[in-house]
Amino acid sequence: MAALTSFNAQPVSRRRLLTGGLVLGSLFVASCAQQAASSPTAASGTSAAPSSAPPTTSSAPAASTAAPPAATSAAPAAASQASPTAAPAAASAPQASNAAPVIPLWDSSTTSLPAQKTVLDNFQKQHPDIKVQPVYVPKDQYDQKADLMVAAGNGPSIFFPDASRCYRYYAAKGLILNLDPLIARDKYSLDDFVPNVVAGCKFKGSMMALPKSQSPWVLFYNKTAFDKAKVPYPPSNWSDPSWTWDKFVDIAKSLTITQNGRVTQFGTGSHFNSGWTAGWAFGGWWYNHDWLDTGWVTKYNAPDDPNVALGVQYWADMANKYHVAPTAAEAQSVQADVAEIFMTGRLATWFVQVGRFGQYAKIKDFEWGIAAWPHNPKDKMPLHHGDWRDQDAIFKNTPNPEGSWEFLKYVDGPEGQQILLVQQGDASNRKSLQQPWIDYWSKQIPALADQLKVATDAMTFDYFTPDNWSVNHSPISDKVLKPALDKVSIGQQTAADTIKQIKPQVDAAIADTLKTMGYQS
């Protein structure tokens, strides 16, 4: 597989539930029966059309059914016109489809549902012979539902890393459909996708997924709060030498407001302030670096990399020492019934991915902007910045593999990605949709037009994340890292001590996953 690390300088470019042993055990049983499960008998072109669209594809609100902006015309007119990535000659594509439904597994959030329904309606109009019956599930139940569906013999037609796993977690068990034969047969072009993300969609040399989205992590800030405090806006330049984590502490303090012993406005908060993501703030590496290429976490490096503990401790101190960020309990209280905590107006700054644009566009009570992340004082810019880069895969035992392939090509095609991603805030992994993303959000939020470069600049140096791109990170994190780091985030233990103390447990968890999840050196 092409080395992903070699692409980090290119100018282009969620997650957590451990399933019980019974379900995981049944995955292996299910995988043994998948050859039969993935061999339907009727070609998709001849399958009977359903008499009516399924109930789950009811029309979306009018606002979400608008045609994609004209800018999308820059996308390739037909993916089949360009030569595909080479596929193994001996491999053969699934020869048939049938009237069985295509079953995408999607989260049931109110923000994504209208776009999903629009895409379903559009696809059904173009492919009336393919019945689509999506399964909607809350984000924190996503992985568990995928496991249950696979164990029952009908895995999701479309799966993406919505919780704590990626396609490689399942590909290592032999549960994911190899797309190489389909790509070769249909002459499906991969040329429009960002190259390093295409490389990441390969496992053991085969294309097992298609690139979906990219959502770089940026700093959102409340301009109104900054104006009231007479504090200059944070820099939009990622390599601004003055923009350090030390300076950010001072700014967060000046933006924190306390009345009668109670914080009414916090200077900051972060979607990434606990767990393994906190360890990236100062450029630390939790694991061996080559998991980017192999997909496997094989070594726990954190005790030997002081930047990991610096990052974890920094965010714990922001809440427990400086009281400029809410604790988990305070964050829950602040958010109350509001869809997203930054929208309350009670956080002056908030670290999260750009995929929040769709939600934040509805904010009326204050002005906001985006800026670069601070960096370690000894570095010139953030060394280990993240980006939720997602991919879509098909399970082998989905009832209709041919129909699922057609649906996958649509949702990850220019039209599908324009609706599902660009118009929601996330950027596409298609090069042809990067400028349309800028154009769309410049029109939706004119005040943000001159700041969108913050996000596109981040794509030139951001990193893949182990939750989205490794086989075995999620059980290691869920079993050992998260419980231990939760104690740091609430001030019960120090980061340095905890990271060293849990080494035997992490090493054991790594060894166990390598033994039980199909690792081959």
Report the biggest beta sheet as strand number plus sense, adding barrel if it closes: 5 strands, antiparallel
SSE-based structural type: alpha+beta
Number of helices: 21
Mean pLDDT: 82
Tell me what you see in this structure.
The chain is α+β, with helices and mostly antiparallel strands. 36% of the residues lie in helices and 9% in strands. The protein is built from 21 helices and eleven strands. The strands form four sheets. Strands 5, 8, 9, 10 and 11 form a five-stranded antiparallel sheet that branches. A two-stranded parallel sheet has the order 1-2. Strands 3-4 form a two-stranded antiparallel sheet. Helix 1 (21-32) packs across helix 4 (142-151). Mean pLDDT is 82; it is low at 1-91.
Features:
521 residues; alpha+beta; five-stranded antiparallel beta sheet; two-stranded parallel ribbon; 21 helices; 36% helix; disordered N terminus
Q: Can you describe this structure in just a few lines?
A:
This protein has helices spanning 21-32, 34-37, 113-126, 142-151, 167-171, 180-185, 195-200, 223-229, 245-255, 291-294, 306-320, 328-335, 357-360, 401-411, 414-422, 434-444, 453-458, 466-469, 473-489, 495-501, 503-516, and strands at 105-107, 135-137, 202-203, 206-207, 210-222, 257-259, 262-265, 349-353, 368-371, 387-392, 427-428.
List the helices and strands and how they pair.
Blueprint: H1 21-32, H2 34-37, E1 105-107, H3 113-126, E2 135-137, H4 142-151, H5 167-171, H6 180-185, H7 195-200, E3 202-203, E4 206-207, E5 210-222, H8 223-229, H9 245-255, E6 257-259, E7 262-265, H10 291-294, H11 306-320, H12 328-335, E8 349-353, H13 357-360, E9 368-371, E10 387-392, H14 401-411, H15 414-422, E11 427-428, H16 434-444, H17 453-458, H18 466-469, H19 473-489, H20 495-501, H21 503-516
Parallel strand pairs: 1-2
Antiparallel strand pairs: 3-4, 5-8, 5-9, 5-10, 5-11, 6-7
Helix pairs in contact: 1-4, 19-21
